[in-house]
Amino acid sequence: MAFSPTASALLQRLGEVRSQSERLIAGLEPEDLCLQGMADASPPKWHLGHTSWFLEEFLLKAPQLAPLLPGHEPSDSLWGYLFNSYYDAVGARHPRPQRGLLTRPPLAAVLAWRQRVTDSLEQLIEQLQGWDLAAAQPWLELVELGLQHEQQHQELLLMDLLDGFSRNPLEPVAYPPGAGGMEPEAVYERGAAGAQPNLSWIPCTGGLVEIGHPGGSGGPGPSPGGFHFDNEGPRHRVWLDPFAIADRLVSNAEFEAFIADGGYRRPELWLSEGWAVVQQRGWQAPRYWRGAWEFTLAGRRPRQPQAPVRHLSWFEADAYARWAGARLPSEAEWEVAAAAGLPQAYGLVWQWTGSPYRPYPGFQPAAGAVGEYNGKFMSSQVVLRGSCFLTPPGHARLTYRNFYPPASRWMASGLRLARGGAAQPC
């Protein structure tokens, strides 16, 4: 049975997801909303505009749907140039490193546009309820893709804001304790509480296993068993030798031991490219460590020894694993272990794997500009699995494939160890 989001369920999700993006900026200052600390990050206002542009471009402006919404007032045509991210089939775009220069349009105009887009989408969904299911379903699925896309940008907005605030000598607090439910640091601390001090190994038999979403690769994502992005399929078979995987994530205290043992000064622990990055950028610790403290969205806070280490590049994760006499799990190993129940799999940090980001066998991107969503990035990046404390509730799933270049570390990324293991059931 194909996954078919109902119009009533989408109406509720639409309101929840769209309003959550706006709650993320409610306590920020106007000056914060154009903050872009580096070329890889984007200002909060740009995230708000881009997510509306995506829904307007691929749904509200679709030739088949536009006649249903004669009252919709689209954005200025130049806004497409400002808020397009990487969809070459749609047209040219403003240079990514210069998004922080976009003081105009003002926030009030962007928020007014967001409301028009939300209102028009509500009207569209209500009209689609009267269509034949086969005709309406592709558009309902595209609405769901747009909402999942917005949830991705909610996480990105928080990671980008943390990067920008970390560059301010005043060490500003984005979300203080007791900030009306908007407390990402509290989510991390609650999830880290009660972690076992001693690491244990979960043995897995391996053998011929299946991984990937069961819905296949056709279209932008919705499928049997719920939504998925196209890069999560098709489901396919993989051979795994017996292995063992750690029953928890690597902690801050354990990473401190790596540093104390000269981890950032020992080239034999690093791949050549990673060692060159360490030398060039002067890395001596994870991204936001400051002595015994750590900079967070709640400001400077004492580092918790038992909490999972976060904001590591793949190079750092790989070097630590080599120092520990282990390795990073492949994404297939991670998925098989997580399907059987893996502690700390979700909600703390994205977990680097040893797998390059490549298409699954039989993968075909969707036709048109939407097909640029994932497939065009399948080179020079590494897969992360799970989810993190900044991931919106309900957005994580077993087959989710996140991906970043190996030197990136402003994301909430950590690691879990793996090694060869005895042939026992996982």
Describe what you observe in this structure:
The protein has 426 residues and is α+β, with helices and mostly antiparallel strands. It folds into 2 domains: 160 residues; 237 residues, paralog of FGE (formylglycine-generating enzyme). Helix content is 34%, strand content 11%. Strand 6 and strand 7 form a beta hairpin. Helix 1 packs antiparallel against helix 4 and helix 1 packs parallel to helix 5.
Layout of SSEs?
Elements (H helix, E strand, L loop, with lengths): L6 H17 L20 H17 L16 H7 L23 H22 L4 H34 L17 H9 L8 E4 L2 E5 L24 E5 L2 E4 L5 H9 L11 H10 L7 E2 L2 E4 L2 E4 L11 H10 L7 H9 L10 E7 L25 E4 L16 E3 L8 E2 L3 E3 L6
Parallel strand pairs: 8-11
Antiparallel strand pairs: 1-4, 2-3, 4-12, 5-6, 6-7, 8-9, 9-10
Helix pairs in contact: 1-4, 1-5, 2-3, 2-4, 2-5
Keywords:
426 residues, paralog of FGE (formylglycine-generating enzyme), four-stranded mixed beta sheet, 10 helices, globular
Terminal residue distance: 30 Å
CATH-defined architecture of the largest domain: Alpha-Beta Complex
Number of strands: 12
**Top CATH class of the largest domain:** Alpha Beta
CATH superfamily of the largest domain, called what? paralog of FGE (formylglycine-generating enzyme)
- The fold-level CATH name of the largest domain is paralog of FGE (formylglycine-generating enzyme)
Count the domains.
2
Please bin the fraction of helical residues.
25-40%
**By helix and strand content, what is the structural category?**
alpha+beta
Widest beta sheet: strand line-up = 10-9-8-11
Rough shape? globular
How would you sum up the major sheet?
4 strands, mixed
Beta content comes to 5-15%
Could you give the order of the helices and strands? HHHHHHEEEEHHEEEHHEEEEE
Mean pLDDT: 93
Radius of gyration: 22 Å
pLDDT < 50 stretches? 217-224
Q: What is the tally of helical segments?
A: 10
